[in-house]
UniProtKB/TrEMBL annotation:
The gene is aat. This is Leucyl/phenylalanyl-tRNA--protein transferase. It is an enzyme of class 2 (transferase). The lineage of its organism: Bacteria, Bacillati, Actinomycetota, Actinomycetes, Propionibacteriales. Its EC number is 2.3.2.6. Pfam families: Leu_Phe_trans. It comes from Nocardioides aquaticus.
Amino acid sequence: MPVEPPATGWIFGDASAHDETDDLVAIGADLEPGTLLEAYRHGIFPMPAGDAGDPMYWFSPVRRGVLRLDDLRVPRSLRRSCRDTEIRVDTVFAEVVEACADPRRPHGWITDDVAGAYQRLHALGWAHSVEAWQDGELVGGLYGLALGGLFAGESMFHRVRDASKVALVGLVDLLREGSAEGPRLVDVQWATPHLESLGITEIGRADYLAALPRLFATPLPPAFDQR
């Protein structure tokens, strides 16, 4: 089981009480493991405001991008890519985060502080990487937090075509293991046309927050419960 870190002194409160036209719900706090878990348990996640030294921004999207396991779309070309790719879990977590944080990527937001925060969560058993490998090389992957039946995805990358999509298919396969024990859901924060093509849909903030208690009560998938 993941190790529970010291509790945070920050209070995030009920995200549903915030303006229904604004995804931003808090500014400040820190990136300690206890703070991050408290935020995720309230349906909130961090992103840097911009320049180094600026306070952290915390978001709970009014329209949340989610993937229900049965909604995943895997076209024929992606199935071929899956056959040529090996899925591994947590073998090179730091390398996956580093690839997602590559400053050459457009709209990059993963700072050194953010990367370090999720590596601390990984060491405690909360953050995980799902990796796509071909011929012994890492070609794509994703990382995020596993909290019961919820996988809160943070970022993904690819070095060959479809590799990040293959990692997502691999994640869904992992979440399906033991899924009869309770609901499972992938949170992708915001939906994009690229993600929607794979079956991601949007739900309202209130519906997302209402789903969290049952998701958290679901046992972790075996792949993420190896401590």
